[in-house]
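Before surveying the methods themselves, let us examine one representative protein, written as a sequence plus integers encoding its fold.
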Amino acid sequence: MLASAFTATRDEYAAEATKAGDRALAAAIAALPKPTVAAWAAGILAPRRPKEAQSLVRWTPGSCASCRMTSMW
């Protein structure tokens, strides 16, 4: 999904939950923030290039002992 389509899709799901009578679910869906560009890109990358996506997870801040000992993050 294009990042620009997120809001419209989110609103459609919230409307469906409202129609189904689940106000709590509709409110939870409507409250979902638009993802950051980085999160959106990671979501696109993961199913297409799983090995590369996994390497991103390994190098996220705080994911390894040596990373936690440095101030680079």
About this structure: Confidence is low (pLDDT under 50) at residues 66-73. Residues 30 and 62 are 31 Å apart (CA to CA). DSSP finds five helices and no strands in the chain. The two ends are 30 Å apart (CA to CA).
